[in-house]
Amino acid sequence: MSEDIIFPIAHPYTANRINWMHGQEKALLVQEQQILMVAEEVPLALVYNGIDYAVMMVTPHDINNFILGFSFTEDIISSFVDLRQIQVTAEPDGLRADIRISAAAMRKVLARTRRPIAGRTGCGICGSDMESITNRKKCGVVGKQPDIGAVHKALENLRDHQVLNKGVGMLHAAAWCQSDGHILHIREDVGRHNALDKLIGHGLQNQVNFTEGFCFLTSRCSYEMAAKAIAAGMSAVVSLSAPTALAVRTARAAGLVLISPARATGMYVVSPAQ
What we know:
CATH superfamily of the domain at 148-271: Cytidine Deaminase, domain 2
Structural class: alpha/beta
Protein name: Sulfur carrier protein FdhD
Pfam families: FdhD-NarQ
Helix content: 25-40%
Keywords: Cytoplasm, Molybdenum cofactor biosynthesis, Transferase
Distance between the termini: 40 Å
GO molecular function, one term: sulfurtransferase activity
Function: Required for formate dehydrogenase (FDH) activity. Acts as a sulfur carrier protein that transfers sulfur from IscS to the molybdenum cofactor prior to its insertion into FDH.
Largest sheet: 6 strands, mixed
CATH architecture of the domain at 148-271: 3-Layer(aba) Sandwich
């Protein structure tokens, strides 16, 4: 499962920056040309044993982690051993991942309706049919509320760990933190669902214990984010932005501790430990 960065993470573009200079009767507009680093996103075609499954828009980095995490949270594979081989190649307009999976995993691919459209960057379930969402496998976790001091510590240090985002400012991150708030692992992507899938994939490949510690998200926590965290067996999720109502109901039903939104000035525990 060798992995190469085939595309750059960001590209420089010239742009006219417009500044509003206040302090006068009328605001003074000042323009200057600057270089703006813009995050890259590329289509990644996921092909399981020769069967096209989906096309996802991703940041071209940690692709193997994403494929593993996506395959697991989509309930295609049950464990790391179900994924036999990944071969990523460059296409004229993106990437193609030829993924070899076990016979049991392939039966799941063949039994469900294939996604009819491409998965957009901002949505983890775009293209799914209604039945695949409503009949999603339900599972529970043992929620553990992290120490608030540990959450604050992770919040203070999170930006420093976003290596890819430096100079770009538009990549989401999903980080796994120890119980004391120390950030152990982090994955970044232009799509928030992709970042979480990458973190989960890394955890599966490296036997990360998702029951001890908490996941920190730089994005809002939607239903899909909560569902992915529950599928991975995480005990707690903290997100910078607010949750959706369905995410709260999903977390409470499964026992997942959800702290959202979390800011330097305070945070909300919307799904406490049962």
